[in-house]
Amino acid sequence: MALPYLLSSEEYFDFNSEYYIFSLLVVLTGFGFEFAYYRFPTSLLNLLKMLVLNSAIFLTILYFGGLIRRIGLNLLIIVLTAFAFIIVNIFQFTLLFNKQKKKYFIFSLIFYSIFLLSIPVHFLFGIHFFYLFALFAVLGFILAILYVYKAPENSKIKVNKYYQFGFNALIINGFITLVLSINHLTANILFEKGTANTIIIAWMFTMPILHAGNIAEKVFYNSGHLVTKYKKWVAFLFVGISVYILAFFLALEFVPSLFPKMIVKDLFFSTSIFLLPALGIYAIFNAPLNAFVFKYLRAKQQRFITVYLGSTIVLLYFLSIYNLNSGIEAENLLLKSLGFFAIPIIVKFIAVSRVIKKRRIAHFDSAQCKRGLNGSDR
């Protein structure tokens, strides 16, 4: 969130043009492999082979969809940076799953601290910020190989298992990242830098809301009585998000100097007045629903969600092609993007309701709570 305050309007616009291609590739190329790797460890070479295959497929799709406009050295750097992040994410997830919390914390602290070095280096030497971002990602990758990675005894790859276990996680967990990345890329392509930067910065201020939702989801997931106690946690989340939104608009009205100077003020206000409350509602409802989905629903029941959300992503892809070819107003792009946030809530609610109708609620808060995405139903 510091970048709009530190970079010029032009630098921030250029950084976003590269960062959101990177963000898309991390989700799509990674394909949820972190959920397969700890079950079926394989060699780093085998992992890279699958990532190369995934990137070739998705780069082609994004290129013909118009979301990637330039092919060259910059794109190669973006792809390599995505590979580094994916592998680091896989190793981090493995540490967490194996309950190596101390090692996970130390590695994560070092890894993310490395990126803070990019800010002073950028100002000292004037190096393009995304190049520094890529360089420090590679350093993090090397750190992961030296500190975390252990070559498995049996590196025979089970390709079908990787795609089977990863697909649900890709769609369900990666849906919001895909929507945001496609929205931001579309804004950067269609609009001049002032408008594009304003839209992205408005979305940036929703990150604390989405982060609060992610934390709440983990709390719900680790709760022994999710169904019977969720009202207490939802109320706590509602109050926290409401306070944040109120403080945001009070600051915007009375202390506008707190916000980046590059924003277009009228557009920023008209975007934020819809965006923050809508994302607040999303976070409040999605947190318990997501926890319920991964904690209680069997693999087949999760696939119901995967099919519908996957279909939505395909729809979003073709809609982005239409927007890029025909043009769209900034406000309309915002409303369409918010519409996509409603879809996972509806689909998950339907899936959860179906399960609750078939079983007594008390049953969920017993031994069933120990099962879920990583449970025996797999």
Keywords:
disordered C terminus; mainly alpha; globular; single chain; about 375 residues
Task: Write up what this structure looks like.
The protein has two domains: 1-157, no CATH class; 160-378, no CATH class. With 378 residues, the chain is mainly α. It has helices at residues 3-6, 9-30, 34-37, 44-64, 73-97, 101-116, 118-125, 129-147, 159-190, 193-204, 207-222, 226-254, 265-296, 299-326, 330-358, 361-364.
Q: What global shape is seen?
A: globular
How many domains make up the coordinates? 2
SS content category: mainly alpha
What series of H and E elements makes up the topology?
Answer: HHHHHHHHHHHHHHHH
Percent range for β-strand residues: under 5%
C-alpha-based Rg, rounded = 21 Å
Mean pLDDT: 82
Any low-confidence stretches, pLDDT <50, length ≥5? 360-378
Counting DSSP E segments of at least 2 residues, the number of strands comes to 0
> Largest sheet, described in full?
none
Q: What is the helix tally?
A: 16
The N- to C-terminal Cα distance equals 38 Å
